[in-house]
Structures are given as C-alpha cells and as structure tokens.
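Deliverable D5.2: sample structural annotation.
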Amino acid sequence: MTSLAPAVAAFVLVFAGLFGLVIGSFLNVVVYRVPAGIPLTRESRCGHCAAPVRPWQNVPVASWLALRARCASCAAPISARYPLVELATALAFVLVTWTAVDAWAGMQSPAVVTVTVAYLYLAAISIVLTLVDLDTRRLPNAIVLPGYVVLGVLFTLACVFGAPWEALLRSAIGGAGLFAFYLLLRALGRGGMGGGDVKLAGVLGLALGWIGWGALLVGAFAAFLLGGVYGVILMITRRAGRKSAIPFGPWMIAGVWVGIFTGDAVSQWYIGMLIAG
C-alpha cells in the first residue's frame, strides 16, 4: 500500500481484517448448509441440542473463546474449525487488500475498490469451495456458477471506472481458455476430472486472466504441480493408491492464488532464464 498514507493504509487493513472475520462467520454457515440443502436464512441452532444461537454467541472468534469451545446450553464441543475459518478469512482479506491496492495503484480509486472487491469475493468462495470439496468431494453449482456473473460484472465496472479494457478481454479469454482446457481433460480422462472442476476452471481463469498472461499460465500449472505432489505424498505414505480419487478443487484454488500473487514475477524470471540461456 505504498500509494496510501501509513495511517490510511493501517485503517484500510484493519477494516479488511474485521470485515473478513464477519464474512468468515458467514462462510462457516455456507460450508455446512449449501451441501446439505439447508436454507441460509434459517436460524442458527446447536447441532446437538437444537438450542438457538444467540447474537452474542455468534461473535467471530471471541464467542468461541468466551464459551470455551462449548455450547452454552448443552456443553457440547464446538469445532475449532469455526474460529480457524474466521481467522483464515480475515488474513485472506488483509492480503488481498494489500496486494490489490498496490498492484492497481495507477488506476482511479473506484476501479481499485471494484477490483479489490472482486478478489475478496474470490477469496471467500475459495475458502468455501476448498472446505466443501474436502468434506463432500463436490463443488456445488450454487457457489461456483455465480462466480462468472460476479467477477464478470465487477471487472466490467472496473473498466468503466478506469481500468484497462484489455484486462477485461484477457480475463474473458482466460476464463474461456481454462474452461475449455479442463473440459478437454474431462473428455480424455474418462471421469478423472469432475464436472465441478471444469466449471470452477472458468471462474478461476477469469481471475487469473485479469492479472496477466503470466499469472494465467503459472496459476494453471501450479494446480497440477501442487496436486501431483500431494498425490505422491499420499502414495508414499500409503494413504492412497494410484487409482484413489483425490479432490482436485483445493489444488485448483491453491494454484490460482499462486498465480495471482507470483505469476507475473515467476513468468518474467522464466523468460529471462530462457533468454540468458
């Protein structure tokens, strides 16, 4: 945030972190209810005694600590995953805000804000989809498909506010290209690649393409590299075999963030190495 005064930068980052805690609390609800088909508007209740969760019992992290990780009504244990998701979301929001403002310092303020919101949204669904895929080996359409609309609208608005239109074109190409690539892998792999992975690939391609071609290539490659390493580790430790099904969504998501944060730098380093060689 070199373009902002220190006091302003500190305020923005603190706000992003607090906002992330609140969103993280909501993400815990989404992770549990969407795969189960439970409406998000239903009142929160204890999973053991069905006692309603009071507002003061739903303060991110603080309530979990105050209740000593137990239900106030029946003393049933409350998983540590709840505060961890909230803290992870807060950290993700701080990192995205820091990086987005620095990366787009040359744009007008409304465009910077719009692009930042787009990647905050991506961070939120990244956390949700990672947990859902690990829990259920599914990538629900209700979470994946809105990503096309949300990112498409926000990136278009960013261009209206002053961002380069070339970035929007590159984003569209990235989304279509990565979707087509995964669709081809699914067609050739006889079930090895899930339909949810294909749909998610298009959303991730939109986000990577907006950053740059280097981010798109590095992000796409990183997914297979990270997933491959994880698979090898599982086989070495005999926790999986060559034909074991491994959720690939989390590695696609990990790859996209590698591409976002390091893609351009890694691609420039690689091109420089080729030229020097």
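Annotation notes: The CA atoms of residues 136 and 155 lie 31 Å apart. The chain has ten helices and no strands.
The annotation will be released with the project's public dataset once the embargo ends.
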